[in-house]
Design a protein that fits this description.
By secondary structure, chain A is of the alpha/beta class. Chain A is built from 10 helices and 12 strands. The longest helix of chain A has 17 residues, at 56-72. Classes of the chains: A alpha/beta (251), B alpha/beta (203).
């Protein structure tokens, strides 16, 4: 049977890995190529690279890094950040990405999902959504979680999957960086709404949080986290051993 | 030398990188002369069967591959490239494949339980059905990375490994010099590289 995936996420700015708390106060963590290799060797099932640079120079550095990582590391690589057009898909796929995640670019132009899925296949298009509770409703936020779009989150994800997104990353702004566990309520709502793989993001602080996630929501396919892995709070081999001990199937 | 056959389908960056990583001499080519001179061939592919089969035909590479197969040259198809080795596919209609292996490519929809997601995407364990040169460096239950919605059926002659996903799906095939992996060895970590190493090694 298919295994549950553990996915470290590397936010890249100006060629370095960074991770903030609640998307603010970024701090430099490590060299992306070295970190990616370490994760791959320790049993990461996939890697996500988010380009959070805005400058042209930063973007060039990012594609250089991606090419280096893809030449050395042979597990699936997903790239996100600054993906606004089908040409952006082309740019990162040529550097060795396997999947491309869209967020603000798809909010601006939802047909980006359809056009990219037609060209590269649904399996290549990942819809990533930053979601926060506003007045008791799940709302989609754009621009790295800074801007309330006013859109209802579950409906947006349903629409994205209908347009051709083959996978969904659900990032809860409410739980991100707080390390009190994944946003079970939000993730359950998403799993009920769509029939493509759902990746949980935001809130992992302990190994137990991962166990709770997969035990509580058997439909969740993968868990994504950054700082707990970057800072060594959780080692992936330990995490996998614990999951296995709880009858959760992992690689 | 290993030749990765480039017929305009998909991105060959990772595949080429993975052969370089294991120290194999590798080239990506659509040149029949280079394909004829190569020791072993890789037939890659992602996307739709009909489109890929048409590109192979239009480029004339289908005849080149069949001729090399008939000479006994080792050929490994990967993902859609493996599916193209079979007689036919029922992906959106009925389409002819290369016919180097007996069997058909069919949708998993309707075969696997409705609660399982399609495509079959992620890491899944290999269950060996027969000994194969491809498995000399790996073990039963090692996981490899799959992304597919169709699978090879009626291929008892060639199936060497399956993966369990609500049904026993064909994961790898071998018949004489013709081999194939439904999964992506170039995305399957050390296990995948070990399968490519086995393909590169002499028998």
């Amino acid at each position: 049977m298919i295994t549950k995936r553990i996915i470290p996420c590397l936010d890249i700015k100006n060629g370095r890995v960074v991770k903030g708390t609640n998307f603010q106060g970024l701090s430099d963590v490590s060299d992306p190529v070295a970190l990616a290799a370490r994760y791959s060797e320790s049993g990461a099932d996939e890697l996500v690279f988010y380009d959070i640079t805005a400058s042209f120079e930063g973007r060039r550095l990012f594609t250089d890094i991606l090419t280096k990582v893809a030449s050395e590391i042979f597990i699936p690589l997903t790239v996100g950040g600054g993906i606004n057009t089908v040409e952006d898909f082309d740019r990162v796929l040529k550097c060795g990405a396997d999947k491309v995640s869209v967020n603000s670019g798809a909010i601006k132009n939802p047909l980006l999902i359809r056009d990219a899925a037609r060209k590269y296949g649904n399996q290549c298009v990942v819809l990533s959504a930053d979601i926060k509770r506003v007045d008791g409703a799940f709302r989609v936020f754009a621009k790295g979680g800074r801007e309330d779009t006013g859109m209802e989150a579950i409906e947006w994800i349903r629409q994205g999957v209908a347009l051709g997104a083959g996978e969904v990353v659900v990032n809860s702004i409410d739980t991100d960086g707080v390390k009190q566990g994944f946003d079970i309520e939000l993730l359950e709502a998403v799993c009920d709404a769509v029939n493509v793989p759902v990746i949980a993001s935001g809130g992992a602080g302990t190994v137990g949080h991962f166990v709770d996630l997969f035990k509580t929501i058997p439909d969740i396919d993968a868990a994504l986290a950054a700082s707990v892995f970057h800072f060594g709070t959780i080692r992936i081999p330990d995490l996998k051993r614990e999951l296995r001990g709880n009858d959760i199937i992992v690689r | 030398m290993i030749a990765i056959i480039d017929y305009g389908v998909g991105n060959l960056f990772s595949l080429r990188s993975s052969f370089k990583k294991i120290g194999a001499e590798v080239t990506v080519t659509s040149d029949p002369a280079v394909i004829e001179a190569a020791d072993k061939l890789i037939l890659p592919g992602v996307g739709a069967f009909a489109d890929a089969a048409r590109k192979l035909r239009d480029s004339g590479l289908d005849a080149v591959i069949k001729a090399q197969a008939a000479r006994g040259k080792p050929i490994m198809g990967i993902c859609l490239g493996m599916q193209l080795l079979f007689e036919r596919s029922f992906e959106y209609g009925e389409h002819q494949g290369l016919g180097l292996l007996k069997g058909s490519v069919v949708p998993m929809e309707g075969v696997i339980p409705a609660n399982l997601k399609i495509p079959h995407i992620g890491w899944n364990a290999l269950h060996f059905r027969r000994d194969s040169r491809l498995f000399r460096n790996i073990r039963e239950n090692d996981c490899v990375y799959f992304v597919h919605s169709y699978y090879a059926a009626d291929c008892e002659d060639s199936v060497i490994a399956t993966a369990e996903y609500g049904a026993e799906l064909t994961a790898a095939v071998e018949s004489g010099n013709i081999m194939g992996c439904q999964f992506h060895p170039e995305k399957s970590g050390e296990v995948g590289l070990n399968i490519l190493r086995a393909f590169c090694e002499d028998e």
